[in-house]
Design brief:
The protein is an alpha+beta fold. It contains nine helices and six strands, in the order E-E-H-H-E-E-H-H-E-E-H-H-H-H-H.
Length: 239
């Protein structure tokens, strides 16, 4: 993927964000990840082919316009350039909101709200780029979606792209419910019961392929433990 930089800006007195795209990215690492994903049969984890700065910029415009046409809350395109976009502000990220929320029940409601919003995108035939909690926003109880410079459908089926959204979201939210045993898995299980069989199968296939990572990942802290917790929740949800 192209390198991006986001800086605060203003547009007609309103908060905005100037996003610029540059050449770069980790082509060899992404190629290796695609090879591993194919070997594991984890279609939902296939990394999109790295794009030039111009193509990444055009891809984000296309993703924003496509999702907006579906009625999804995405940043308005205020200015458009070959390697630069001026984007409207959608509020703080869901990750920030969850970290700031001390009440466990309120954190659960925030995680559930984001999951429902992703489900609504999927129900309309859409999908996201990287559905991590840091790429969801919240304002006045409404969820928005940002950082859309990748188009997973260039590498995988719609079912796999939607499964990818759920996998990424699960990975990024497990830590927020770590003090409520079983709650994260319960939210995922309830959600998976209502998704198309093809999406559920992609989630189950990927979780099964990565199941061996859970024990060793739990031995480490930080991100590794978060991966382990997310995979454990997904495994429990898929049963």
């Amino acid at each position: 993927m192209a390198l991006t930089r986001v800086q605060p800006a203003t547009w007609e007195g309103q908060r905005a964000w100037r996003k610029t795209y540059a050449e770069g990215g980790h082509r060899r690492r992404l190629a290796a990840l695609r090879w591993v994903a194919r070997r594991l049969g984890a279609n939902a984890l296939l990394a999109p082919v790295p794009l030039t700065a111009e193509r990444a910029c055009r891809t984000e415009q296309s993703m924003i316009n496509r999702l907006a046409a579906l009625g999804v809350r995405v940043p308005p395109l205020l200015e458009v350039g070959d390697r630069e976009l001026l984007l409207g502000d959608l509020g703080p990220t869901l990750a920030v909101a969850c970290r700031a929320q001390a009440d466990p029940q309120s954190r659960r409601e925030l995680v559930a709200l984001g999951l429902r919003a992703i489900g609504e995108v999927h129900a309309r035939g859409g999908y996201l780029s990287q559905a991590f909690a840091r790429n969801l926003t919240i304002r006045d109880g409404e969820i928005g979606f940002i950082d859309l410079e990748e188009d997973p459908a260039t590498m995988m089926s719609l079912a796999a792209a939607q499964a990818r959204d759920l996998l990424f979201y699960a990975h990024s939210t497990a830590r927020f419910l770590s003090g409520q045993p079983g709650m994260h898995a319960a939210l995922l299980r309830e959600h998976l019961q209502g998704v198309p069989a093809a999406v559920r199968a992609e989630v189950a296939r990927t979780t099964h392929a990565l199941r061996w990572l859970v024990p060793p990942a739990r031995l480490f802290g930080g991100r590794s433990r978060e991966v382990a917790e997310a995979l454990a929740s997904l495994a429990a949800a898929c049963r």
